[in-house]
Design goal:
Largest sheet: 6 strands, mixed
Strand order of the largest sheet: 1-2-3-4-5-6
Structural class: alpha/beta
Number of helices: 9
CATH topology of the largest domain: Metallo-beta-lactamase, Chain A
CATH architecture of the largest domain: 4-Layer Sandwich
CATH superfamily of the largest domain: Ribonuclease Z/Hydroxyacylglutathione hydrolase-like
CATH class of the largest domain: Alpha Beta
Radius of gyration: 18 Å
Bound molecules: zinc ion, fe (iii) ion
Strand content: 15-25%
Distance between the termini: 46 Å
C-alpha cells in the first residue's frame, strides 16, 4: 500500500479542512466540507480529484460545502446514519465499525457522540491517522451540545485507547486558548507548561498545532486526564467517577 498524502488547510473562520489522498488509486477524501469554494481551491492546488466527503457531524460549519462540492466533483458523501436527516447530499450512512474504502486504504467508523448525538470519527488503522471532527481538540474537546458528560466520556475513551502514535486531525484549532484553561486545572503539569509555550510560538509563526497525537493529548489534555490527582484535587473531586470529573472540567471550560 502506498503512503497516503495529507493536506491540511485553514478554512472558514477557525475550521481546518483535511484532504487524504491515495496516490496509488487516485482516490481523495475530504474530512467534512466546511466551505465549498475553499475546498475546491485546495483540491485544485493539489491536483487531486475528490472521491469522498467523510462527514463527522451535521453542524453547518462541517457540511455547508456538501451540495456544491458534490455537484462539482460527483463525490460520494458519507456520514453518520443517526444524523442522516440533517446532512445535505448524504449517499452512504455509516455506523460503529463500518468500513469505507478510500482507494487502497480503509477508513473505519468510530461513533463518538457527545458534541452532537450522532458524531462519528474516521480511523485509518493502516495509516495511523484518526479524524475526530469536534469530539477532541488539541488540549480541548467539543462542547456537549447534544450529549451528556457520560456519553462524551465514553467517546473520548475510545479515542484514548488508540495506539499512542496515532496522528489526530481535528475540525478546529484553539490550542493557545485551550492551554490557558488547562493550566487552571493542572498548573503543575510540566508537559502542559511546555505545550503552552510552544503554542505561543506557533501562533507567532502562524503555524497550526495540528495534527497532534494521542500520546500528546493523553499527557496534556485535561479532558482526557480526570484520573490526574492534581486535577481531582483542584476540582475537589478526589475519588469520584471519571466521567463526573470530566463533566465538571467541561463545565468549568464553558464558563472560562
Ligand atoms: Zn460542531
Ligand atoms: Fe465545528
Amino acid at each position: 500500500m502506498a503512503q497516503l498524502e495529507i493536506h491540511q488547510f485553514p478554512t472558514r473562520s477557525d475550521n481546518y479542512g483535511v484532504l487524504i489522498h491515495d496516490p496509488e488509486r487516485g482516490a481523495t477524501a475530504a474530512i467534512d466540507a466546511p466551505d465549498a469554494e475553499e475546498l475546491l481551491a485546495a483540491l485544485h492546488e493539489k491536483g487531486w480529484a475528490l472521491t469522498h466527503i467523510l462527514t463527522t457531524h451535521h453542524h453547518h460549519d462541517h457540511t455547508a460545502g456538501n451540495t456544491i462540492v458534490k455537484r462539482m466533483t460527483g463525490c460520494t458523501i458519507v456520514g453518520p446514519a443517526r444524523e442522516a436527516d440533517s446532512i445535505p447530499g448524504i449517499d452512504v450512512e455509516v455506523k460503529e465499525g463500518d468500513s469505507v474504502e478510500i482507494g487502497s486504504t480503509t477508513a473505519r467508523v468510530i461513533e463518538t457522540p457527545g458534541h452532537t448525538r450522532g458524531h462519528v470519527s474516521y480511523l485509518f488503522p493502516e495509516d495511523g491517522i484518526v479524524c475526530v471532527g469536534d469530539t477532541l481538540f488539541s488540549v480541548g474537546c467539543g462542547k456537549l451540545l447534544e450529549g451528556d458528560a457520560k456519553t462524551m466520556w465514553r467517546s473520548l475513551q475510545k479515542l484514548m485507547a488508540l495506539p499512542a502514535e496515532t496522528q489526530l486531525y481535528c475540525g478546529h484549532e484553539y490550542t493557545r486558548a485551550n492551554t490557558k484553561f488547562a493550566l487552571t486545572v493542572e498548573p503543575d503539569n510540566a508537559e502542559l507548561q511546555a505545550r503552552a509555550v510552544e503554542a505561543e510560538e506557533l501562533v507567532k509563526r502562524r503555524e497550526p498545532a495540528l495534527p497532534t497525537t494521542i500520546a500528546r493529548e493523553l499527557a496534556t489534555n485535561p479532558f482526557l486526564r480526570p484520573a490526574s490527582p492534581e486535577i481531582q484535587k483542584r476540582l475537589g473531586m478526589e475519588g469520584r467517577e471519571l466521567w463526573e470529573i470530566f463533566g465538571e472540567t467541561r463545565r468549568r471550560k464553558d464558563r472560562f
